[in-house]
Amino acid sequence: MHDYIKKILTARVYDVAIESPLDVMNRLSRRLNNRVLLKREDLQPVFSFKLRGAYNKIASLPRELLEKGVICASAGNHAQGVALAAQRLGAKATIVMPRTTPAIKIQAVRDRGGKIVLFGDTYDEAYQHARQLEAEKELTFIHPYDDPDVIAGNGTIGMEILRQHPDPIEAIFVAVGGGGLIAGVATYVKFLRPDIKIIGVEPDDAASMYEALKQGYRVTLDQVGIFADGVAVRQVGEETFRLARQLVDEVIVVSIDEICAATKDIFDDTRSIAEPAGALGVAGLKKYVERTGVAGAQLIALNCGANINFDRLRHVAERAELGERREALLAVTIPEQPGSFRKFCQAIGRRSITEFNYRYADSRQAQVFAGIQLSEGEEEKNRIIDALREHGYPVIDMSDNEMAKLHVRYMVGGHAPGLRDEILYRFQFPERPGALLKFLTGMAHGWNISLFHYRNHGSDYGRVLVGVQVPEAERPKFLEYIRQLGYPFCEETENPVYRLFLDGRN
Fold this sequence. Notes:
A six-stranded mixed sheet has the order 1-2-10-7-8-9, with helices on both faces. Strands 5-4-3-6 form a four-stranded parallel sheet, with helices on both faces. The protein has helices spanning about 1-10, 25-30, 50-60, 65-70, 75-90, 105-110, 125-135, 150-165, 180-190, 210-215, 240-245, 255-270, 280-290, 315-325, 340-350, 380-390, 400-405, 435-440, 475-485, 495-500; strands spanning about 20-25, 35-40, 70-75, 95, 115-120, 140, 170-175, 195-205, 250-255, 300-305, 325-335, 355-360, 365-375, 395, 420-430, 450-455, 460-470, 490. The longest helix is centred in the N-terminal third of the chain and has 17 residues, at about 150-165. Helix 3 (about 50-60) runs parallel beside helix 5 (about 75-90), helix 9 (about 180-190) packs parallel to helix 11 and helix 12 packs across helix 14 (about 315-325). A hairpin with a 6-residue loop joins strand 12 and strand 13 (about 365-375). It has 20 helices and 18 strands. It has four domains: about 1-50 and about 150-320, Rossmann fold, CATH 3.40.50; about 50-140, Rossmann fold (3-Layer(aba) Sandwich), CATH 3.40.50.1100; about 325-400, 3-Layer(aba) Sandwich (Biosynthetic Threonine Deaminase, domain 3); about 415-500, 3-Layer(aba) Sandwich (Biosynthetic Threonine Deaminase, domain 3). It has about 500 residues and is an alpha/beta fold.
């Protein structure tokens, strides 16, 4: 511990980094009945904390290694940190990035003098290629998180927080990917102020640290969600896990909707837009307050980055209301007759309907996809559902149904009566030419695509919903095919929303 404290106190980060401000979030503080502060790492020159660790590591290298050059694998913030650090220190930087990396991130690295090598479709493939180039060209690999100098550079954030806020602090909430940020912050804070809780926050579809601490060893997730791409790590670092086991009080997992709601909270208070990983701290803080009922406390969240593609803001905006429980999504069956919509609205009461999707199916019943604005959260939603059922309406709550929110809300009315042997899958397709063709090529087995819905959310991967007619006897063969394809997938054939709105099977 003393070695790390010395490393943090002597870290060379301020050649490139600023001491980021610790701002009060007045609106959120009033709403949560606590004093909420935001550590603004989004204001760094590369719009994230990553340059702290990258610069500290590169600055520690002997001159002979600097002259040979450095290399890293990254699709985003670490790449920019390494490129800027190398540029300031007069070293050549090679950045291996997946071919799926958005052009804006590639250009940001190029603008800082980094040599771009595009390789593979995933971070893991880019990482392996970077390690190969490291050996071939005698370069020094700069790890994004599992390195003591990187951890120490990140630890300067904890040092700044305690200097900026000497008063009591209940907890500090830190986004977790590979663990380099929380390991650095926790090391410094726990050394001086062990009473302060250090709480990690991860997306529920990329909770590698949560699972590792739960199991007591580093687990490798089969796949991770890519919405919060800055923390989409399948396995945390060895050294970061060692420190987290000693120093981190707990890890909270949050949903995509809760991340989007936190992004809106940050915008409302600061007029700045956090990337999904940057909003994790606030999302976890809110969940902690809701769970514990704490009031009058000093709570600090780290906004660790603001590198977000503009196209993704549409997705963030439409999911923020769900994350705040200000909107309910309901599937309601109503009679197919004149005046039934009016009666449905009367049953809902004087509430705003945010969405109403319906298509004629038969002469007896209509399936309605309804969005309803809420002012009192979960309790109000439950009252609405109870009232509708009292009026005889069958209701399914879709507010937490991922397929409903991503796809079905745009496809209501897709029944195909008489369709045989249909199965339904969600996929994540890499956003690159040929990805769809690769998928379709495997359809030569005679399987017919009966449904296909794609929507781009401005990220590295497109979300696709596919219905395929596959006879029962051939399904093991189909499952083997999609596993070999390598695209993350999830079967949705038995999803009740599919059965209600889209199912055409006999």
